Amino acid sequence: MQPSAALLRPSIRTNVPGVMVDEERQKVFDEFARARMPELLRFGHALTGNPHSAADLVQDALERTMLAWPRVEKQGDPEGYVRRIMVNRNISIWRRRRRETLVLDVPEDVRPGGSSGSVEPPIRDLALWDRVRSLPPRQRTVIVLRYYEDMSEAQIAAVMGSSVGTVKSQASRALAALRKDSATFADGEVRR
Amino acid sequence: MSRHIPDDEFDRRLRDVLHSRALSITPDVDAIDRIHAGARRRQRRQRVAVSGGAALAVIAVAVTGVTLRPTHHNGSQLAGGPSSTSPSTASSTLSKAPSPVPSTVAPSSNTFTATGPAATTPATIPAGGAPPAGFTPMSVTAVNANTYWVLGHAPCAQGSSCVGIAKTTDGGKTFTEVGAPASNLVPDVLGNSDVFSGDTISDIRFVDSNDGWAFGGGLWQTTDGGQHWTQYSGPNPPILGNPQQLAVASGRVWAIATDTNKAGTPPAYGLFTATYPGGKWTLVQQPLVAFGAPEPMLAVQGKTVTVIGTDYSTGKPVGLRSTDGQTFSTLPTGLPCTSAPGQPLSPTPQGLWLACSSSSGKLGGVYFSPDFGKTWQVASSKLADPRVAIGGVDDKSAIVATGGKLLRVNVDGSTASVSTPSVPASTQFAFIGFTTANDGFAVPVVNGTRQLWRTTDGGAHWSVVKF
Question: How far apart are CA B200 and CA B186, in angstroms?
């Protein structure tokens, strides 16, 4: 039997044993990454609450996606794949950095529109944003997937690999925490 | 005093916050280059990790990510066996048969180490040629009487052992190597434990000429008949743990894998499923039971899924069954095996065959369930050896390995001898399985080396497959 044509084409070997990614696929991946990166960064920002962590998270997810690109491309939803990695990696990373993350006070320079030199306008409801950022990552993830991605509870459960019941309880706790003393920042009285 | 904010208003505010333009981040100009560089670093790290071979694998037993599966202690039959496929139903089970005897080896024990071909780097036998001299079969899977794949290993030029997959389309007259996953082969040494990791395989399974899986700790999939393989990586943390059994039927893949939601010792096992190709793996909800070691057995026939294992909490045998592939319930009448399960389970289109030791642990028993686990009837309880491998032929009989030889056990309790190649009495059988009521395979371990036997007359006569 002759080797298949695919094996005769110029190729680069991925980290996945036995998987070859040819140059054409590499270009397709680059185009995908370049086109979707702004939105992925924005999603990462919502997930992590921090632009620097968002950049790291997106880079991590796209590296993994690149190495699995033949399979990911074949599945037909590469962005969904990247976002699922981001969701799960963010929770995983948080587990390792728990002590570093469980703080309410956030350095000023990582706030959107803060003193970091961002050209974007500041978040109008900054107090609510700060409260979102202070949520435990799983709860924050549920909130982001629900209110940013407009996912159903079943979809969120599928992405997070948990049950719908767990998602409901996480959402309930998160919303309760966000609503707590909500009036105090409803009128922007305590914006920091 | 705080005022209440209506839900709608609060939801709107939350959406506004999360969709604020202030969350936008401008990508760095060199972002793509950094992704390439990062991917290359990952690639190098993984290569180093993989090429570490068995030494690293053994060391990793004490760390996370590696699973020790106790199999075949006392030299019972093995895992890593072939699949039994019914072309008419496109349903089969890759029957990895753990020990039929209650495990006396703690699953977390690091007493057992990887030996044999797993000690090699993950080199593969090149595709396109005939299997090299010394090709030793480990696992077989068939889609019809003439077409089957054999996972095995052979000596390499480097003095190590290479993983290969040989395919035949003429019933075994000729074989051609197809591509193989660059993975370590779990040795499946009878009487030992297997060292699994995300880069090991022990079994192969094809559901048609294109779609196949190689698994056993790691998981690879092919959609082109084995020419190319893609490793499952999934999200991190992974949804699917180390898969150790896999079956395909009715458009779904089913797997028994370590349950990553229950990290600890001993390992917990879960039933996972996905559509194929490329479907997302999900843990089947098991509100009724969580499985502990030894790994539960999986049998899939059409949409009927049966899992028999050990309750993680109580250590007692427990079984689950679904007739629609969605809703599971415990097996209503319990199990015929009074000892802990871990016995081979073999599906046929008409029902399930199960072999297990008797309550005394000294005799083997054979049971048949015409309703896939709901009720069981005794076919034989007088086998001389509790170390039983079984392959169901149909609803009338099964081929059983006991006492170093093959035997036909009929559902009415009668037995009959079958014709096999001459082998020592010490021969153990890693696997027996049937593709159709006529075509079947057995994997005996003869003087420490595996062979592949084949029958085309329902198990009456067996011959060695030559590579």
Answer: 6
